[in-house]
Amino acid sequence: MAEPTTRPRDAALGSGPGRVLLTVYLIFAVAAGARALVQIATKFGEAPLAYLLSAVAALVYIAATVGLAVGGARGRVIALTGCSIEMVGVLVVGTLTVTDAAAFPDDTVWSRYGSGYGYVPLVLPLIGLWWLWHNRPRDRA
Amino acid sequence: MNGPLSVATIVASLVLAAWCLLRSALNRPPSRFDLLATAALALLVAVLVVVAVIGLFDGTRPTETATFAGYLVTTIAFAPTAAVLARMEPTRWGNLILGVACLVLPVLVLRLAQIAEVTSG
After folding, report:
1. Does domain B3-117 match CATH 1.10.1740?
2. B113 touches chain A (CB under 8 A)
3. B19, B61, B68, B113: most buried, per Cβ within 10 A?
4. Does residue B93 belong to the interface with chain A, where contact is any CB pair within 8 Å?
5. What ipTM did this prediction achieve?
6. Per the CB < 8 Å rule, is B89 touching A41?
7. What values do phi and psi take at A70, rounded to 5?
8. Residue numbers in A near B91 (CB within 8 A)
């Protein structure tokens, strides 16, 4: 584990582990985005709430991806906003789908805490927030 | 969907995933061999996607053709995208990117096979 000592403190947000995170967010941006597009384009009337939620989730993943890619102070804010909404979203939607399944006739990425995606949607914002905190701007000595 | 070809792709992807994760654990950046292996996997996936596209024109289409097409596009672009990102990251994290991508790829292939099974005739 030489990485923490060799990695410069001012290294870009989207490099090193950040780029792995970026890759996974990119996968989810594509997965959630494509799913929302197909759902809204072909059967929006069946479950408008679930499909709008899919679209929101997709936008959040896209925002986090863009934030990590852009980097810098602005990228941080974008990624932080994305990860925070994602964290709240997966917890709220996960809880609602467990307690009130009738309101969600069709699945979204966040249904049942993201069980359809191997619970990655639940773990991803935690890693994202940790990474952003780990790379928070610090006063130089 | 071609059964043996899907299985071969899944097995190749998982083997490469194990290799890249091991290389990442050993703190190795993606080597030329690693990237070439990913390119070979991408080629195998491309063959699979072409076979699947040809299959669309033999009269039996999946009920969810739009979803199927979406998965086909994602699947064919997957390994090349991972390779590009891994080349941008010449550290152990580059190999982690390849490893993660090779773990997700079998899921995509399985989903493709699953969607293809539900045909409208």
Report:
1. no
2. no
3. B68
4. yes
5. 0.88
6. no
7. -70, -45
8. 3, 16
